[in-house]
């Protein structure tokens, strides 16, 4: 009798395949004495904090996936990080911006203030996750941010998680290996990223409760809303153990 894998097992197998792809790309680059960040910055003459690399970001017009790399932390452990986005208007499902009411700000009524300055239509951009890289060009942390940090259009956690499931870079510009690596990394850590996105909303809601007359999405004291250290190798070992049981 043929035994079909359960949906849970199929998902674990998919995540393991993604993890092996991540490791393969990292090892192939290391064998050539380079790494993901070095390859992405190869044609850049200088590297400046806060500037997007590559200039103009990496964007896939077929899927709406987008990312850039930059640096501004300078904490010694982190070299810089990727910011990963999705342009919702290019997805088959319809996503509507979240409705956050700003209370007691300015002269307009609260409802007129809701997201009036957020990018709209084709300019709407949803931040999925940040990926921090160490000085060896390897991923060390995942994180989410408040709306103002990347000037995104705010979507609910449920919608951003749905966008995460659809994220795909289908072309090879500017570095095919970096694009393939990002695709696989987001599949490998999909459950963790989904949890960070839910924690993002919880952090914002907590700030609203603490200061109901402020605008939590523009609160400069709330930048990183959730973060998690990661290890690709440890995640792959965990998946192998789970599938062997």
Describe the structure.
- This protein is an alpha+beta fold.
- The chain has one domain.
- Helices cover 39% and strands 18% of the residues.
- It contains 8 helices and 6 strands; from the N terminus they run ααβββαββααααβα.
- The protein has a 6-stranded antiparallel sheet with strand order 1-2-3-4-5-6.
- Strand 2 (65-70) and strand 3 (78-86) form a beta hairpin.
- The longest helix has 25 residues, at 7-31.
- The two termini are 21 Å apart.
User: What does the oligomeric state look like here?
Assistant: single chain
| N/C terminus separation | 21 Å
Residue stretches low in confidence (pLDDT < 50, at least 5 long) are 103-112
Topology pattern, helix = H, strand = E: HHEEEHEEHHHHEH
Question: What labels describe this entry?
Answer:
single chain; 18% strand
Please give a quick description of this structure.
The protein is an alpha+beta fold. It has helices at 7-31, 36-40, 110-113, 147-150, 157-166, 176-188, 190-210, 232-244, and strands spanning 53-59, 65-70, 78-86, 126-134, 139-145, 224-229.
């Amino acid at each position: 009798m043929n035994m079909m894998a359960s949906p849970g097992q199929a998902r674990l197998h998919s995540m393991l395949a993604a993890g092996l792809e991540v490791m393969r790309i990292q090892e192939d680059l290391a064998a050539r004495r380079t790494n993901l960040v070095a390859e992405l910055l190869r044609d850049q003459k200088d590297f400046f904090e806060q500037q997007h690399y590559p200039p103009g970001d990496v964007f896939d017009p077929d899927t709406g996936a987008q990312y850039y790399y930059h640096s501004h932390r300078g904490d010694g452990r982190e070299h810089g990080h990727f910011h990963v986005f999705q342009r919702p208007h290019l997805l088959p499902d319809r996503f509507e911006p979240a409705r956050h009411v700003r209370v007691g700000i300015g002269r307009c009524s609260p409802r007129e203030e809701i997201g009036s300055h957020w990018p709209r239509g084709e300019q709407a951009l949803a931040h999925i996750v940040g990926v921090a890289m160490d000085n060896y060009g390897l991923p060390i942390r995942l994180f989410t941010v408040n709306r103002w940090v990347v000037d995104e259009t705010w979507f609910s956690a449920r919608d951003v998680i749905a966008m995460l499931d659809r994220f795909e870079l289908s072309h090879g510009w500017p570095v095919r290996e970096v694009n393939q690596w990002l695709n696989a990394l987001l599949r490998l850590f999909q459950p963790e990223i989904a949890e960070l996105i839910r924690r993002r909303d919880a952090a914002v809601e907590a700030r609203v409760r603490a200061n109901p007359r402020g605008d939590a999405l523009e609160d400069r004291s709330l930048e990183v809303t959730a973060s998690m250290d990661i290890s690709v190798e440890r995640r792959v070992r965990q998946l192998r153990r789970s599938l062997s049981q």
